[in-house]
Amino acid sequence: MGRQWLHAKRAIVNLKKGQVVGKLVKEITVAAKLGGGDPAGNARLFAALEKARKASVTRDVIERAIAKGAGTGGDKSSLDHVVYEGYAPHKVPVIVEVYTDNQQRTAPEIRVLFKKGVLGAAHSNKFLFDHVGMVEAHTAAPGTDLEGAAIEAGANDFSPLSHAENDDIPEGATGARFISDRTGVHAVATWLKEHGWSVVTAELGYLPKQFPELDDAGRAEVGEFLHELSEHDDVQRVWAAVK
Q1: TACO1/YebC-like second and third domain: which residues (predicted)?
Q2: Which terminus of the chain has fewer Cβ atoms in its 10 Å neighbourhood, N or C?
């Protein structure tokens, strides 16, 4: 077989990198469309730009994505935001956020991915989630008082966040997820940045109110299902009631 296996592996790695870059560019475009093209006043855009730079997305690509979203360039954004509700195997509630320029193409593909679960208006489940603001950040300062930081930042709640839970959190750093009202995301992210925190995510999201009990086999099956969903090019976020 020679070195064909190596070329195949490199092709897979390059494909994965391309998918990551594509999702980051789409996130930048959407963030600029929703909150404007100035990262100083758009916490979601600021966080997306930080991720893009870490992924070595070029400046030209970033600037085009911002211009497209903000409507300042010749290529205006035509992405639609679509939210699908359904259930993964073992009746785990799932919300899927999609950004697509072709709903007629994307909808059937999402339905195919839900072949192991259920999808559709008859399976509405948003009442099982709280729609909130989420800011994920980390600091190198040892012994950081997370509760105090949450109070000062104006967050309603917080939870520790480790590298194992989010690989954007460096190993050894103090990480946390801060929960706010939907209108409070920017204020929380801004306070954290001004006080030495590195913000990796600032967005609106869906927080499960409860989690179905799963054994190891069930958890693995749900994990595989969610992974397949998240790999779709148009899927930007997958929210699921699973730990």
Answers
A1: 80-240
A2: N
